[in-house]
Every structure is written in C-alpha cells, then in structure tokens.
Amino acid sequence: MKVVVGSPDIPTAAIGSGAVRDYEGHCYIGTSSWISTHVPFKKADIFHAIASLPSAIPGRYFIANEQEIAGGILNWLRDNIIYHKDELLLEENLPDVFKIFDRIVEKVPAGSNRVICTPWLNGERTPVEDHLIRGGLYNVSLTTTREDLIRAAFEGVAFNQKWVLKYIEKFIKRRMDPINMVGGGAISDVWCQIHADILDRTINQIKDPIQANARGSVFIASVALGHMGFEDIPKYIQIKNVFKPNPDNRKIYDELFKEFLNIYKNNKAMCARLNRHDQTK
C-alpha cells in the first residue's frame, strides 16, 4: 500500500493554481490572502516577513507570506455593517450578498470616489509584522455612499496585495506577470479586474478557483502514485477569464496607493497606543 503524505493549504493551493514552474505567480484571496511563486532557492527576508519554504514538489520551494484579511473584510461588511442585527435590521435570512456586492462595485468608478479602505482588521503580517495596526475607512464625506465603501473594501485588499507584490518581486528579482488568481475571491470577475488594474498585472482567473487546495492535494497524490508528473499540471488547469490592466485607471490607483502607504506610516504609532492592551492577550 502506498501512503502519500498530506500537505498544508498554501502548498496545495500553489500547486492547484497551476503556477508550478519557477517564477510563475499565483494570488490567493480567501479570508486572508497571499501572493506566491515557486523558486529554486532557499531565502528569507526577515524585514518583510517573506521566506521560501520547502514545496510539495521535491527539491523546490514556494514563497511564504500572508496578509491577515482579504475576503474576510466582506464578511465584516456583511455581518457588522450592512446586515448587523440591531433595531435597524431584523431579517433572519440573508441573501447571497457577495453577488450583490459584485453588482454594486461594478457601478462605482475606479477609486471609490477617493475613499480608501485599509483591511488591517486583525493587524498585519506581510510586508510588515504589526499586530497592533487596525483597519479603517478614510476620506469619507457627506457624499460618500454605501456603494463607495463596498468598492473601497475590494480595492483596499488589492492595494494591500500591491504592497506585498513589491517585496515579492524584489525577493525573486523579476516581474511576476501574469498571475493566476484562486480562492473564493477569484470567483468575482470585478475583483479580478480590480486586481489587474491595481497590481498592473495580467490576472488569469482559474476555473473553480475555490477548489485550488483540494485540486492541489489530488495532484500531489497523483504524482506520488505515478499517474503524472508535476510538470504535467499546467495542462490540467483551465483559465476561465483573462483580465488585463485598464490603462484608464492607472493614474487614480497610483495616486491612492501612495496614500494607502502613507496611512500606515502616519497611523501605526497611534494604533500602537490604542491597542497596547492587546499585547497582554
């Protein structure tokens, strides 16, 4: 009897994304998020919490990093803001709110009318190790609508991904393009397009993206049983859609990304003061 050792979620997603050759990237959007690629070397960037760890592919490594909140911010919007059960909302059954989010976001212009959301609801890990930083909505005015806030949440996750992509590409000393997108967030066409625009990279939306981890486990077992090789995996991966960066959105997203970074720089000390009590938990 052959026994195949299991693998954690990130290595299986890396394989299930189809990006198995060196320097082929994938982006995962689940409750948390990451951007990764396989590399042929062992290396660590302790200043930005990035390291290459052993892959499920023998003799290879994948770049490990994680951003604490991605799709989880949509759960927060749904449960804490839009459908929070207080005296304003007593409905018992919720609709498929994520599809509604997509329709709403498509109607809001790129840049969310200059509202910026930072998704650090549970601190952050990469590219800064800061468990005291907290998220927020910035530049909110009397004209800001709920629609603006929802799109800003989608964009905020992509800005956070752009922040880590800078250090990933510095780590591997090359540009990562295209990027395969997997995880529950990759079901959303509009979120894929937002990532393409903000990252300024081509995004390949993988078919059945939420099954990337399970698919990766099956591939690992299939290789172990001699039915295929790791080099065969890409031909079994189906790309549902390809999203190209929209050059019309380059200016607004570059401008807002600079302010996104400034928000962290300007608020990290304040958050540290406000959240010191968390250190004792």
Mean pLDDT figure: 91
**Topology as a string of helices (H) and strands (E):** HEEEEEHHEEHEHEHEH
Rg, Å, rounded: 19 Å
Query: SS-based structural class?
Result: alpha+beta
Q: Largest sheet, if any? A: 8 strands, mixed
CATH-assigned homologous superfamily: ATPase, nucleotide binding domain
CATH architecture: 2-Layer Sandwich
The strands making up the biggest β-sheet line up spatially as: 3-4-5-2-1-8-9-10
Assembly state: single chain
Instruction: State the shape.
Output: globular
Regarding CATH, which class? Alpha Beta
The low-confidence parts are: none
Number of helices: 7
Number of strands: 10
CATH topology: Nucleotidyltransferase, domain 5
Structure overview:
This protein has 281 residues and is of the alpha+beta class. The protein contains 7 helices and 10 strands. α1 (9-16) packs across α6 (212-224) and α4 packs across α5 (189-199). The protein is globular. The protein starts with 8 loop residues before the first helix and ends in a 7-residue tail after the last helix. 41% of the residues are buried.
